[in-house]
Amino acid sequence: MEDTPFAEASDRPGVALPPREAWRRKMRDDVLDAARAMAAEKGWDSVSLSQVASRAEVSRPTVYKEFGSRGGLSRALVHREAERFLIGVDRALRQPAPTASDALAAAVLYALEEARENVLVASVVKAARDGTDSLLPYLTARSEPVVTGARLLVRSWCQAHYERSDTVRTDQAADVIVRLTLSYIVLPPADRTLRESAELIAAAALGVLSVETGPSPATG
């Protein structure tokens, strides 16, 4: 997707990569796939770089050279998951809906549902509830690349559908949507369905936008 915040300019269809770069990318994906699977199976706290390297069938020094440290692997794992996640959110936002409010609520609902079904997110949330949360900070306190990418995506949508809102309002609304959605993913309310939560998050953001302007009648 061309305008996804995480997209790389070098990822152009039909452009062949040099063999060494193609190998490096495949190796990187294999390592991240192994890390994701192991984190889902037994929790990230129980996973070592040596174990990940063995499962990915590469050497430990290769993993260190590519990611730098266990923290670097953690960041890369969360970043890739967020990239895929945001592509889905972007598609959800583009789906036809009666009103902009409906479109936003549907996209938030998609995010909440995907997070619930995501094995990596599920393992992170479970670990946090059990008192171990070494990967959780990369979704929250150390998540600036994730939060920034999500905010840019949502802000762009807000600007397109609430053209009379100034940049301060659209920035605030995007921040409300992203941070509330992230909060609900990590600690979902027990007394609300996902749809109710999505509608509440959308209403909170639209309340910010509607202070000075009304919503567009439809998503178009």
From TrEMBL:
Source domain of life: Bacteria
Ranges annotated as DNA-binding: 48-67
SUPFAM superfamilies: Homeodomain-like (SSF46689)
Sorted UniProt keywords: DNA-binding
HTH tetR-type domain segment(s): 25-85
Keyword Transcription found: no
InterPro entries linked: AlkX_C, Homeodomain-like_sf, HTH-type_TetR-like_transc_reg, HTH_TetR
Protein name as it appears in the record: TetR family transcriptional regulator
